[in-house]
């Protein structure tokens, strides 16, 4: 198969990512999908990059943000809330996504196949500073998006499967962000936690089990 044909087939596979729905709602009540999340995460990488104190490979971070969820086009989304309450789902997720990224790798010509596969694996292992930062921003972007529906009406979280977990996660400081120790990312985390707390208070939601006190 010609290189161009392989690239076209890969682009068709990426379209599957555009129809993987997430639990989160957009400001107008429509459902967010994986492609929307990837788009916003990529912008978040660009927006914080100038303020990082640690030297990083910016291009790699941006490419990692684009690649990090593409396996879900074949596996679907395993929500963080479900993985917390059903640990066996995390094992299932890792197994299925490992197979999916191999299938996507096989669709591409060299050297693109190795590049995308290696970026995905680097993100999953979270051993490099670039992978750690993108992973941290991935969680922060999701928490921020969760607060956008109808000017912060977070009551809809209760309608999600295991939705009570979202109230806990929205107030929880992440160990990875503390490890990264980048002021701009810590400041962003604090601002998003405060936004979650304000929205929960606005709509009379209390969560006594939250690990971070609002």
Quickly give the structural class: mainly alpha
> What is the name of the CATH topology?
Hypothetical protein af1432
According to CATH, what is the class? Mainly Alpha
The low-confidence parts are none
CATH architecture level-2 label? Orthogonal Bundle
Mean pLDDT: 93
Number of strands: 2
- What's the helix-strand series? HEEHHHHHHHHHH
Widest sheet: strand ordering: 1-2
* Residues in helix, %: 55-70%
Beta content comes to: under 5%
Give the CATH H-level superfamily: Hypothetical protein af1432
The helix count comes to: 11
Largest sheet: 2 strands, antiparallel
Give the overall form.
Answer: globular
N/C terminus separation: 57 Å
Q: Radius of gyration from the CA trace?
A: 18 Å
Domain tally: 1
Quaternary: single chain
What attributes characterize this protein structure?
62% helix, mainly alpha, two-stranded antiparallel sheet, 4% strand, globular, Hypothetical protein af1432, 2 strands, 11 helices, 214 residues
């Amino acid at each position: 198969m010609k290189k161009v044909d392989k690239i076209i087939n890969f682009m068709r596979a990426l379209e599957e990512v555009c129809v993987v729905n997430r639990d989160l709602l957009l400001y107008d009540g429509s459902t967010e999908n994986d492609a929307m999340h990837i788009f916003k995460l990529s912008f978040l990488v660009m927006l914080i990059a100038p303020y990082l104190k640690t030297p990083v490979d910016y291009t790699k971070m941006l490419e990692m943000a684009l690649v990090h969820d593409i396996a879900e086009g074949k596996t679907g989304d395993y929500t963080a809330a479900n993985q917390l309450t059903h640990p066996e789902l995390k094992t299932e997720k890792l197994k299925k996504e490992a197979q999916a990224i191999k299938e996507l790798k096989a669709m591409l010509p060299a050297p693109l196949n190795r590049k995308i596969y290696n970026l995905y694996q680097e993100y999953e292992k979270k051993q490099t500073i670039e992978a750690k930062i993108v992973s941290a921003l991935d969680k922060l972007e999701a928490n921020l998006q969760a607060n956008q529906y109808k000017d912060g009406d977070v009551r809809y979280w209760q309608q999600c499967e295991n939705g009570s977990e979202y109230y806990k996660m929205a107030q929880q400081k992440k160990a990875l962000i503390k490890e990264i120790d980048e002021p701009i990312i810590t400041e962003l985390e604090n601002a998003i936690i405060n936004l979650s707390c304000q929205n929960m208070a606005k709509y009379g939601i209390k969560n006594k089990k939250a690990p971070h006190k609002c």
